[in-house]
Specification:
about 350 residues, alpha/beta, six-stranded parallel sheet, two-stranded antiparallel ribbon, about 10% strand, elongated
């Protein structure tokens, strides 16, 4: 299921307060963007214990319970202790849409009528479900229309602003915080079609835990293994380049001022990619869309940028091309006037360096 309207994590508690207290809610979202932690945090804010049931780990009898004979010779089903409670609580049905059809059917009365057999949820209890979308390559089954119609559906999207605000007080490693502050677009990437790591708030949190665990003993080779084992390959390269800058006090500003040169060693190629990406981002930020709007200082910046492109191409044409390449939508990212001037002035700048 794809929602036409999505919400950021910061809006979820407000929506749940108005919705989950009167009707069951289902949170949709890609893997690793924090659905489970949001539900647990919301339950804590209400002073309710959060009882999680994982849809993929249940059989119908796990919900309905087992039959028990009463004194009059009749039988009744006894729901499991995890559900049958005397005090109100938050029942969290995680991976609900990944459960088998029989398990989903077993949830019907619990979701709509707040009842399993003769047991009824205590007043004040809330029911919240969550699951991934089939389009994310996650395990998900079609949800029956009868179940869809029993839930209020909220579609969650990743938000770098929300995550960074949370991370500042959550003990996230400073390298992760600083890098994602500069590159918030690296917080999340769509799950790939192949079986390989991809970037999510969860994977960045895991990287932070690893950095804390290794401490200063984490060498460059180990960082490569950890980053590439958790993040989208492009994001892993960028982060390793950033880490090398932090460790070696090697910054883009020094290159722009002429106090340092592009790193040319083959073993510094990840650093070169990172600096080139930062260079591209700086140009996008400072160069105006139209040349006539550029101040004299910005015109000097543009000239210096063209010279730096030549120096970069001498080390790696491939890396230099990433600076002036089009965006993912096929449209130019840098101003067209700068690209035209770069193409015109490159031969002269190259000749001047010989």
């Amino acid at each position: 299921m794809q929602g036409a309207v999505t919400v950021s994590p910061s809006r979820v508690p407000e929506l749940l307060l108005g919705l989950a207290t009167v009707r069951p809610v289902f949170l949709w979202g890609a893997p690793g963007i924090g659905k489970s932690s949001l539900v647990r945090g919301f339950a804590d804010s209400l002073g309710l214990e959060c009882v999680s049931l994982i849809g993929t780990q249940l059989a119908p009898e796990d919900l309905v319970g087992v039959p028990q004979l009463t004194a009059d010779g009749r039988s009744r089903f006894c729901p499991p202790e995890s559900i049958a409670r005397d005090e109100p609580y938050c029942l969290f049905l995680d991976e609900l849409n990944a459960a088998s059809p029989d398990v989903q059917k077993a949830f019907y009365s619990l979701i709509l009528d707040r009842r399993i057999g003769s047991y009824e949820l205590p007043p004040g209890s809330i029911v919240i479900g969550a699951g991934n979308r089939a389009t994310d390559g996650a395990l998900a089954r079609p949800m029956a229309s009868a179940l869809v119609n029993r839930l209020v559906h909220v579609h969650l999207r990743a938000s770098a602003t929300d995550w960074l605000a949370w991370a500042a007080d959550a003990g996230i490693h400073p390298w992760v915080l600083d890098h994602l502050t500069d590159r918030p677009d690296h917080l999340w990437s769509a799950p790939p079609k192949t079986e390989e790591p991809f970037s999510t708030p969860r994977s960045w949190h895991m990287l932070s835990d690893a950095l804390h665990s290794f401490g200063p003993a984490l060498d460059e080779a180990a960082l490569q293994v950890v980053a590439h084992g958790l993040l989208t390959p492009q994001h892993a390269v960028a982060f390793c380049g950033y880490a090398k800058i932090v460790r070696n006090a090697y910054g883009l500003d020094a290159i722009l001022k002429g106090d340092a040169r592009w790193p040319a060693r083959l073993e510094d190629r990840d650093l070169l990619y990172y600096l080139a990406d930062a260079f591209r981002g700086r140009l996008v930020k400072v160069l105006p869309a139209r040349k006539e709007h550029a101040s004299e200082q910005l015109r000097r910046t543009a000239y210096r940028a063209k010279s730096l492109l030549v120096q970069l191409a001498e080390i790696s044409v491939e890396v230099a091309q990433t600076v002036i390449a089009d965006g993912e939508d096929g449209n130019p990212v840098l101003p067209s006037w700068f690209l035209v001037e770069a193409a015109r002035d490159m031969p002269r700048l190259v000749e001047a360096r010989r």
